[in-house]
Write a structure and sequence with these properties.
By secondary structure, the protein is mainly alpha-helical. Helix content is about 45%, strand content about 10%.
């Protein structure tokens, strides 16, 4: 259940970033350093201590996905309709 919840949160975060990029086409949005488990503190992105292990696990999973791009990809969350949700 935890992975499904985290997957849903990640989808929502990635979707919000994608929407902001489209809404601001004339501006190059910098997203480096952002993440769903981070927050802004004193003008900087920080990972709360309780999320550091989850962040490392997420990074490991992304590396594995990059190594196997076709594996375990499921279409969903309105991917097939061109974003007309």
């Amino acid at each position: 259940l935890g992975k499904k919840v985290l997957g849903g949160i990640k989808y929502g975060f990635d979707n919000a970033v994608a929407q902001l990029k489209i809404a601001n086409l004339g501006i190059e949005l910098k997203t480096e350093g952002t993440g769903m488990l981070r927050k802004v503190e004193n003008g900087q992105f920080v990972i709360l201590e309780k999320y550091k292990q989850m962040e490392m696990e997420e990074d490991d999973e992304e590396v594995e996905e990059d190594d196997n791009p076709e594996e375990d990809h499921e279409e969903g969350h309105d991917e097939s309709n061109g974003g007309d949700a």
